[in-house]
Amino acid sequence: MKIRKVGLSDWQELREIGIESYVPHYSQMWKLNGLEWYLNRCFGDEFLQKEIIDANVEYYIISSAKQNIGILKLVLSKSLPDSDIENALYLEKLYFIKEWTGKGAGRELINFVFERAQKINCDCVWLVAMDTADKPIRAYEKAGFAIHSHKLLDFELMKSEFKGTFVMKKCFENNGS
């Protein structure tokens, strides 16, 4: 598995693999026109180009020997909600194409995220997981994350039964609780 940091010239490739990896897993969560709204919000041309040049954001394309298999998005400095931990890395997106889900690639990426966070001296890594996503939650817990809080997403076009999320955190030794 290869983890490649995205540059501005890669934005179209990032958009393609982002959409390909998002749609099969999450399209059922959206009301009419919601999926298109969300894809434009997260993978629209202007949005991606702006984010790729943001020094606080890093995107990665994950590939196997034969194909792109997923994306990773990190926000290098974003406070952990409902806490006094300001020096935290936010793991915003970790998406795989359907056939790569559950094959262990996520574990390798989580380790990469932890190493990246420690390299830039973050106290904590946090993420948001759908509270209905039992398998990912168990995988995050196995990787060392703990549930920190519960919150509801405020996306109007999202079906209400999918709005619940857990904020999960992994703090490093002597760096928060």
Task: Give the helices and strands, then pairings.
Blueprint: E1 2-5, H1 11-26, H2 34-43, H3 45-52, E2 57-63, E3 68-75, E4 88-96, H4 105-119, E5 124-130, H5 134-142, E6 146-152, E7 164-171
Parallel strand pairs: 4-5
Antiparallel strand pairs: 1-2, 2-3, 3-4, 5-7, 6-7
Helix pairs in contact: 1-3
Description:
- This protein has a single domain, classed as Gcn5-related N-acetyltransferase (GNAT) (Aminopeptidase).
- It is 33% helix and 28% strand.
- The chain is built from five helices and seven strands; from the N terminus they run E-H-H-H-E-E-E-H-E-H-E-E.
- The protein has helices spanning 11-26, 34-43, 45-52, 105-119, 134-142, and strands at residues 2-5, 57-63, 68-75, 88-96, 124-130, 146-152, 164-171.
- Strand 2 (57-63) and strand 3 (68-75) form a beta hairpin.
- Helix 1 (11-26) packs across helix 3.
- The relative contact order is 0.16.
What brief labels describe this structure?
single chain; 177 residues; alpha+beta; Aminopeptidase; seven-stranded mixed beta sheet; 5 helices; 7 strands; 33% helix; 28% strand; globular
- Radius of gyration based on Cα positions: 16 Å
In the CATH scheme, what's the topology name?
A: Aminopeptidase
What is the helix fraction of residues, given as a range?
Answer: 25-40%
Give the overall silhouette.
globular
Oligomer: single chain
Task: Offer a concise description of the structure.
By secondary structure, this protein is of the alpha+beta class. It has five helices and seven strands, in the order E-H-H-H-E-E-E-H-E-H-E-E.
